[in-house]
């Protein structure tokens, strides 16, 4: 249900990017999944290819508002440190929807930039007994665009994604002995930091 609400909001914002020169950037890259140590055990999301779409709306020279979506389909594993908890592996989708600012520098074909975004990050286990985990998230990073002409550029970027914050229950509802109905679940808290490196094409529309 929450997925549908966020995607509906994402597409409702698209018309705001259609009345001026908009930059659209389909991206593909490699995302670092990250891991966290709880008192009960270690949870790890494995690194994997990710993909996404970014829309940038210029508000003044060298400054733009950016709306972005990123997804990684991977697998995760929990390795128990204590009795009463079992090892477990499952497929997982990690997604981000972010809104923020991009600051560009320079006037030549090579255009470095930095970015700062905020929004929602969530993990969706592809099993029935573990719920999705939603958290506020922040991204910061930078990169370089190389313009072949006025409409198209090659774009490289690196980003830090933080935090994905996990507390008792949530994504770990199905890890305890006897499953979620037994009431045995991870009760500690931790912060997971992720990052990615991606490459894509930036295309200017509206000229």
Write up what this structure looks like.
This protein is 6% helix and 62% strand. It is mainly beta. It has one domain: Porin. It has an eight-stranded antiparallel β-barrel. Strand 8 and strand 9 form a beta hairpin. It is elongated and about 60 Å long. Residues 11-159 form the Outer membrane protein beta-barrel domain. Keywords: Signal. Residues 1-20 form the signal peptide. It comes from Persicobacter diffluens.
Based on Cα principal axes, name the global outline.
Answer: elongated
Report the CATH architecture.
Beta Barrel
The residue fraction in helices comes out at under 10%
Low-confidence stretches: 168-188
What keywords describe this structure?
207 residues, mainly beta, eight-stranded antiparallel beta barrel, 1 helix, 10 strands
Brief summary:
Residues 1-20 form the signal peptide. InterPro entries: Beta-barrel_OMP, OMP/PagP_B-barrel. Helix content is 6%, strand content 62%.
Question: Which secondary structure elements does this structure contain, and how are they paired or packed?
Answer:
Layout: H1 2-13, E1 22-32, E2 35-37, E3 41-45, E4 48-60, E5 63-80, E6 88-104, E7 110-125, E8 133-147, E9 152-166, E10 190-205
Antiparallel strand pairs: 1-4, 1-10, 2-3, 3-5, 4-5, 5-6, 6-7, 7-8, 8-9, 9-10
């Amino acid at each position: 249900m929450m997925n549908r609400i966020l995607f509906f909001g994402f597409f409702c914002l698209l018309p705001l990017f259609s009345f001026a020169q908009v930059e659209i950037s389909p991206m593909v890259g490699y995302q670092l999944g990250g891991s966290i140590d709880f008192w009960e055990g270690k949870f790890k999301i494995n690194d994997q290819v990710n993909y996404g779409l970014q829309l940038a709306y210029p508000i003044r020279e060298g400054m733009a508002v950016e709306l972005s979506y990123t997804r990684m389909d991977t697998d995760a594993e929990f390795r128990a440190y204590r009795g009463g908890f079992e090892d477990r592996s499952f497929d997982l989708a990690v997604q981000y929807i972010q809104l923020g600012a991009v600051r560009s520098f320079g006037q030549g074909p090579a255009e470095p930039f930095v970015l700062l975004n905020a929004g929602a990050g969530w993990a969706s286990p592809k099993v029935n007994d573990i719920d999705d985990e939603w958290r506020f998230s922040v991204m910061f990073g930078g990169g370089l665009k190389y313009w072949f002409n006025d409409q198209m550029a090659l774009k490289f970027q690196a980003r830090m994604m933080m935090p994905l914050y996990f507390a008792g229950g949530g994504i770990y509802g199905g890890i305890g002995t006897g499953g979620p109905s037994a009431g045995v679940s991870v009760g500690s808290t931790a912060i997971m930091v992720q990052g990615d490196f991606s490459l894509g094409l930036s295309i200017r529309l509206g000229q």
